[in-house]
Amino acid sequence: MNPSIYILSLGILSLIVSCASYESKLRARAEAGEAEAQYQLASMYWEGRAIGRDPNQALKWDLLAAEHGHRKAQIRLAESYERGEGISRDYVQAARMYAKAAEQGDLKAEIRLAQLYLSGQGVPQNYAEARTLLERAAGKNAAEAQYLLGQIYWQGRGVTIDRVQAHKWFNLAAAQGHELAATMRQVVAMEMDRDQVVEAQRLAVEQSKAHK
Question: In terms of Cα–Cα distance, which of 83, 118, 82, 86 is closest to 98?
């Protein structure tokens, strides 16, 4: 055998043995109830790394990790339920998983759960709960949350229509490059007088300084 081919073959064999050993140790930790190991094992099944791709096994380990409080597993599982990827679409379960991750302060979960409350998918429609979640996310400078708050105040969804507040939130989101927010800021400004625009801008500056 060509020496180069022989050396390459040994390298590949060593890599296979190493991967198998890693998977075996990871599985043992996962079966012992370690959430991070369960999440990593699920990732291997999702991506087909070292082991064959198996969505059913991936979902099994993600579910275990999620129930053990693993935030990333909760998000991935929520997205799987919401999109119907590898599992039947279930907005109730999606909302439940987003809620678990939101309790841990996950930004994406706060926004997605708020959107489910706005639409009434998987949870009873609740504008107040949606607004609370979005305000929490907006306080972390999440442009999408700021944009959605602007929509809530512009449309009067669970609140009295307030163009000053709408402009403030659209302005904050637009400052971070949110294109739809920039468009809506112009739309709302056309419905306001000069004093209202000045007040909205002042409030946006205050909000920005308070959450730097």
Answer: 82
- Do 113 and 133 meet the contact criterion of CB atoms below 8 Å apart? yes
Domain of 51, in residue numbers: 28-106
Q: Residue 201 CB: number of other CB atoms within 10 A?
A: 15
Rg (C-alpha) for the chain, rounded Å, is 24
Contact 114, 126 (CB under 8 A): no
DSSP symbol at 48: T
Residue 114 in domain: no
Q: Return all residues near 59 (Cβ < 8 A) that are at least 6 apart.
A: 42, 77, 80, 86, 87
Residue that wins the pLDDT comparison between 11 and 98: 98
Owner of token pair 């306080």: 139
Span 175-204, pLDDT tens digits: 999 999 999 999 999 999 999 999 999 999
**What per-residue string of b and e applies to 158-187 under the rule 16 or more CB within 10 Å gives b?**
beeebbbbbbbbbbbbbbeebeebbebbee
Domain boundary among the residues 106, 134, 157 is at 106
Q: Which residue in 103, 109, 173, 162 sits closest to 138, CA to CA?
A: 173
- In the block, tokens 């429609």 appear at 125
